[in-house]
Design goal:
globular, alpha/beta, 6 helices, 5 strands, RNaseH-like_sf
Length: about 200
Amino acid sequence: MTDIVFLDTETLGTEIDAPIWELAAVRRNANGNETPLHLFIDHDPEPWMSNPKFPESFKADYRARYRTERSISRPDAAAVLKNFLTGRPHIVGAVPNFDTERVAHQLLRPKGIGELWNYHLIDIENVVYGYLRAVSEILTASGATSPVDHCLQLPWNSNDLSRAVAVDPDDFDRHTAMGDVLWCMAQYDAITGDAQ
């Protein structure tokens, strides 16, 4: 069985060049052993921090938690990731392509490193949606009322989906890289029964 890596980044915007300033991951092997990774990555915060469209709450979080002296360079981050992601693990995340595209663009390609993960990304919101859709269909077919149908209408709300599988997003330090990794893991484990 291929290892899975729960991955999340915090960036200074949604653009592909908006710097990754925090990265967290937890690698789980076939035996269930887990290895965490948490990095702060050196970058130039401008013009991103001056952008009036970048939410003030994210700016405040950045100012409160990022310290240059605790960060590593982008080349060093690429080397750490090359080691951490050996064997092409499956990446699990909330909209994981957001993170993998930026990791590849900002950290790996400049060092001549190709993508290190299996190309089948696992988006936890899609997994939860599919699970809830199946639950709804089973309940409806048996004549019962489905308590999760409100979650299945587009656009999805990731907090509602999470709560529908008994994972309260308020129990996690959301919009921090490790907090979002742990939130994603809890949802994955709630559905797959892989809880540690």
